[in-house]
Amino acid sequence: MRRTPIALLALITACWGSEPPATDPAPQRDVTIADFVGMWEGTVMTQDSDAPVAHIEILASPREDGWSFTVVSTVNPARSTTAPSRVISQGGDSVIVEAGPFASVLREGETVSTHSVYRLRGDRLEGTIHASYSSGMDVVLRAEARRRP
């Protein structure tokens, strides 16, 4: 009867010692606006689809008020617009950018203002764009872009 508790204790000790110690992932450093500087090219999609509704080029400046972007409709490439934008907040791995109002390439005859959150993922930007149209409609879009070499 004594062997069972000792055997159980030996088994627990062996299992406990064989597991690697738990480690926390290395903390990521906070990015700065300088980490976003450059030209980014990508696509804009609706929340529920991977099909692009527009192509986007983002020119990120080291200044908060020096950003701009160009959007080109995938349905009608003749419809494009370039608009200035500004960084309103930055922290962690993200930057928040606002623009507008400017002519919409997705809704002809309307203007749109955007509030975008872009996250830096290596050489990629992943973003969520909240678009508020002059008609009162609000739409949430997704953006993915890669840094142009």
Q: What is the topology, as strand order, of the major beta sheet?
A: 1-2-3-4-5-6-7-8
Tell me the β content: over 45%
N-to-C series of helices and strands: HEEEEEEEE
Overall mean pLDDT stands at: 86
Number of strands: 8
The quaternary organization reads as: single chain
Low-confidence stretches: 4-21
Total number of helices: 1
Helix amount: 10-25%
Provide the gyration radius in Å: 24 Å
Distance between the termini: 72 Å
Largest sheet geometry? 8 strands, antiparallel, barrel
The rough form would be described as globular
Q: What is the structural class?
A: mainly beta
Model description:
With 149 residues, the chain is mainly beta. Helices cover 11% and strands 52% of the residues. Strands 1-2-3-4-5-6-7-8 form an eight-stranded antiparallel beta barrel. A hairpin with a 6-residue loop joins strand 3 (67-73) and strand 4 (80-91). The chain is globular, with a radius of gyration of 24 Å. The N and C termini lie far apart (72 Å). Residues 4-21 have low confidence and may be disordered.
Write the layout of secondary structure elements.
Blueprint: H1 3-18, E1 38-46, E2 52-60, E3 67-73, E4 80-91, E5 94-103, E6 111-121, E7 124-133, E8 138-147
Antiparallel strand pairs: 1-2, 1-8, 2-3, 3-4, 4-5, 5-6, 6-7, 7-8
